[in-house]
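Q: Give me the 3D complex with alpha-D-glucose-1-phosphate-6-vanadate.
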Amino acid sequence: MSQTVTTRPFQDQRPGTSGLRKPVSVFQQPHYLENFVQALFDCVAKDIVGATLVLGGDGRYHNREAIQTILRIAAANKVGHVVVGRGGIYSTPAVSAAIRKRHAAGGIILSASHNPGGPEGDFGIKYNSRNGGPAPESLTERIFSRSKEIDRYFIAEPQHIDIDRPGTYRLDTLNVEVIDPVEEYAQFMQRLFDFERIREMLQEGLRISFDAMHAVTGPYAKAIFEDLLGAPQGSVHNGIPLADFGGGHPDPNLTYAAALVAQMQAPDGPDFGAASDGDGDRNMILGKQFFVTPSDSLAVLAANATRVPGYKDGIVGVARSMPTSRAVDRVAAALDIPCFETPTGWKFFGNLLDADRITLCGEESFGTGSNHVREKDGLWAVLFWLNLLAVRKQSVADIVREHWREYGRDVYTRHDYENIDATAAHGLMNALRDRFDTLIGQVHAGLSVTAADDFAYDDPIDGSRTEHQGLRILFGNEARIIFRLSGTGTQGATLRVYIERQETRDTHIDADAQVLLRSLIEAADTIAGIRKHTGRNAPDVIT
Ligand code: VG1
Ligand code: CO
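A: Here is the predicted complex, encoded as structure tokens.
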């Protein structure tokens, strides 16, 4: 039995870079989640009636309650079958794989990814379409419009489904199938990578350390690295998913994965280190006393793709988000394959992947992936690196240095100013945009500004245009400074400043990025007045 509940719309349910993210307290308001899910179902009604959906989340606070609610709404909206990850836990890339494997109509992922969790933290919800990828902007905008006018939702009577026990359950006419998602994902990875070879390398003594940050990848990482690949027990740290991520910030970068970074800095530390984020789609790669920038990681994977089984026939093209460094562009040029530049957010890669225009893609924000799913995939990237290490028998640092010598190095850094005043942040962006004309020809850090623009993207597959995706200050081909406001935060605004310079002089190739980029970092402040507008003297996070 289901009922129709009368409701009033909320005006703030616009999905951002990756779904709708709000503080838990916002999601706990009566009808808030229900309204959004119904708005979504109203927009995709013709796809979901009688069809299969995949449902799960990163295990953060409110995940379990939200899953029970969504199951009841799915039943009342006549969805046929819902596949739920055991305990409600399902990594983002595993959901993407499951949608594709089952030819499901789509999936719902409950995650605020790298944002902190717990009662005081954030919650989020995202819809992925039939191809396994994040809903395109056209759909998220329709959901937003619908959410502003919704006046009813359909929901089945409360019935508790035991999501901790794999099996099949019935909720009115809805079939609920609770599965253990880890095994399916681990099997998938064995088709792409040479597990035998990696196992041998680990047996020979290569030491790895993986930090799951008490988020969703813990069970996957234990099954893959320790059980299947034979890494010693304890190679996976913080492997138990917790509703508040142990109080941490499940963001694999130099600031928030500090414990792993410290371990890798030690002279007797492991040879290879990696971490993932809340929902398992990000990856950070470290060597012994060496950090691989995500932009370099993408370029290295592209240049070496044919060395791993899943990509042995070569790659057809690559794509990177606009603020990602141009390291991969040079690899694409050398391979004579196309390289696409998209706005920030994985949803923009979907069309290119579906149309077989690209095989690999990535973002500077610790996101790397391929056509195997339609999300970035943290553990996939880690396995790709391990496979490369096993084949090349070199250290992480040597592989990257060799890459720089061959292609040049795109020295890169990103500076984040978190939780700044939203009006000040928009003021900075507007003032900078207004000064574009006067900037051309100015000399900063010894380089002359050749162009300044507000990045817009024309999707070559569906012809859609997306504007206002970041302000770019270009210094010919040599350097870039990009200013962008985050679309995933829930408090105030976050300013991201991306700074990049191509370095081909061999003597400097190995130096620290913050040192090599010092004058450009100063130029960013001169050009945009960061201190003046934000009142901040230094960024919160440097990567
Ligand atoms: C950030 C990253 C972006 C990424 C997005 C979602 O967005 O910059 O590259 O796609 O997070 O990643 P923003 O708008 O805050 O810059 V995740 O792992 O949070 O799903
Ligand atoms: Co994520």
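A quick observation: The longest strand covers residues 409-420.
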